[in-house]
Amino acid sequence: MVGSRLPSSWHMPWPTRARQNPTSPTTWMTLLRHTATRLHSRLSQYTEMARAVHGPEYDPSAHDFDGEIVMRVGGGKKHGRYWMGDGVIDTSSTPTLSQIRARSTSASPAIRPRPTTASHLVNELQVISVLFVAY
Fold first, then answer.
1. Strand-pair partners of 78
2. Separation CA 61–CA 56 (nearest Å)
3. Which of 12, 45, 82, 105 is the most exposed place for a label (fewest CB within 10 A)?
4. What is the pLDDT of residue 11?
5. Can you state the angle between helices 25-54 and 67-74, rounded to 10 degrees?
């Protein structure tokens, strides 16, 4: 059996970090904390932009998602997905980012670049360090 020999790297044990138990409570709590932080951040940014467009009394819970606002806040679609509410937004009635740019004026809300995961992590670390110093 000459062809059945595996490379020597396959015989080495996997790193311990890669073998975390996906059902452990700490893994789930970390995932939930990260997801809740991202969701709160996105909803806050969406609400801020919606109130800038529709007025300060605008209540986003009483209306459907506005696809144009999601496009402005999220910097368009990345990899074919909206920044939030991907399965809720009607793609046929939502303008593309180039259409939004073409009809935007200086008085229109700015189209924001989509924040990266690294920037979210830096913001979380800044909040944690401020809480630690303040405590």
1. 81
2. 14
3. 105
4. 47
5. 110
